[in-house]
């Protein structure tokens, strides 16, 4: 059930209502997650390879600049939120594979629209940043 303020009731639980401007609001916390640059990059990389899985090292290679720690934290959050699946291969050393869930794949289009907007408007943004007093 969706409430007017945009919060949701988890399955089997009472609805959580809140204020999007409150740090405790579940919707705000989700927006914080999906608004993160690494989340956007990883969703894009995984969507480009869907339904194939990618290993940790391959994800790191395709997301230049991400540290091992940040990649690990972001993947953990995406898995916890049900956007990414994690499969551990029993080998020495163990290999870990990641793939988008259907829910994660549904996030690719909205994030692609935001990325396209950024690419379309970056020159205007940079021009504004160069103005004195900005």
Rg from alpha-carbon coordinates: 18 Å
Stretches where pLDDT falls below 50 for ≥5 residues? 1-9
CATH architecture tag of the largest domain: Orthogonal Bundle
Structural class: mainly alpha
CATH evolutionary superfamily of the largest domain? Winged helix-like DNA-binding domain superfamily/Winged helix DNA-binding domain
Helical amount: 40-55%
CATH class division of the largest domain? Mainly Alpha
Approximate strand percentage: 5-15%
**How are the strands ordered across the major sheet?**
1-3-2
Largest sheet at a glance? 3 strands, antiparallel
Count of DSSP-assigned helices: 5
Broad shape: globular
Search tags:
5 helices, three-stranded antiparallel β-sheet, 10% strand, 2 domains, mainly alpha, Arc Repressor Mutant, subunit A
